[in-house]
Amino acid sequence: MAEDRTGQLVVLFVSERTGDDAEGYAAAADAMDRLAAEQPGYRGIDSVSANGLGITLSYWADEASAIAWRKHPEHAATREAGRGRWYKWYKLHVADIGRSYSWSRE
């Protein structure tokens, strides 16, 4: 079950992939997931994709943590590779989480 995310920052990444270099994309995505998890202020990730469309939510302790991740050299290089190879387009939104709760069928 998801944890309470109240007070965290969420970065919403919505994208459509080109379909090119699926293996390279998967390797880069795995590497970025591992690298993000090592960053100060990282609080988790949720992601879903279907038919080339994807939504990834990454959670951060604060704005400074999210900005530091954006500026990380390996992340920046992978972002440029994504623009050149893997994405048709993407949109990124950043928001503060004012309320958070979850439910799960036992």
TrEMBL record:
Transmembrane segments: none annotated. It holds the Pfam family ABM. This is Antibiotic biosynthesis monooxygenase. It comes from Sphingomonas naasensis. GO terms for molecular function: monooxygenase activity. The keyword rRNA-binding does not apply. Gene3D superfamilies: 3.30.70.100. SUPFAM superfamilies: Dimeric alpha+beta barrel. Keywords: Monooxygenase, Oxidoreductase. It comes from the Bacteria. Residues 19-80 form the ABM domain.
